[in-house]
Predict the structure.
Amino acid sequence: MKRSATMYPPVAMVLVLFAHLLVFPQSEPQSTKKTYQPNGSEGSLAGTVSLSGTAPWPMRIDMSADPVCHENNPKPLTEFIVAKDGRLANVLVYVKSGDLLEGLSFETPTTSAVLDQHGCRYLPHVLGVQVNQTLEIRNSDKTIQNVHAMPKNDPDWNQSHAPLSEPLTHRFKHAEIAVPFKDNLHPWKKAYVGVFTHPFFSVSNRKGVFTIEGLPPGNYTIGVWHEEFGEKTLEVTIYPGSHQSLDISFDMAERKVLH
C-alpha cells in the first residue's frame, strides 16, 4: 500500500524545530541572584600597601614628538612603580571571592567612572569600575589622542579622540583584572581598569592607603594586583559592623615585569 505524505508531518515538525534550535541559540536564563540590600551589619576593610627593597627611579619620558604634550607636561616620568617612604601606589585591592557573594548581585552605579587624558597621560593610572557601569574618557589636552582598550573578556575597543571634544563612553560586559589601555599615537600612555561584578574594590593612593566599605559579613579572599608584581591573595573575615585592617606588602624581588 502506498503511504500518504500526510502521515509524516509530526516527524517533519520535530526536525524543523530541532534545526531551529541549532541555528538560533537560546537566550541565557534570567539570573536568580538576589540584589543585595544593605542592612546595617556591613563592615569595612582598610590598610596600606608597602614595598620592601629599593624601588627604581622613574624614567624621563620623551614627549617631544607631540609639541602639545611636551608643552603641557615638560617633565613627565614613568609610573611603572610609584613608591615613596616604603608605600606603594596604584595597587588594585578587591574582593576576589566569598561564599556570601556567590548568590548575590549588586546594582550598577548610576554615576560614571572617569578616566581623563591630561598632559598626554591617563589619569588615574589605575581605577576600578563595575560591569555595565559607564566609563567616561575625557580629553583635556589640545591635541588628538587615541583610546585603545585591550580586554580579554570583551571586544577590543579602539577610537580616536579629538582635542577638547565630548567625552567618550564605554561599558564592559564582563569582569576582568585588569584591562590595559594604551594610546597608539602616544606609546608612553598607559592605564589599567579593573572590572568587577560588585562594588568592593579600591586603589591604593600615593601613601599606599586603600579602603573598601559596605562589605557584608563573611569570609573573603582578597585579591591584590599591581602591574609590575602581578596578583597575590589574602584571606580575611568581616564581622558584623567591624572595621578590619589589612596590611599588604610587596618585595622588589617579586617583580615580574622589567623595563
Notes: The longest helix spans residues 9-23. Confidence is low (pLDDT under 50) at residues 1-30. The helical segments are 9-23, 67-72. DSSP finds two helices and 21 strands in the chain.
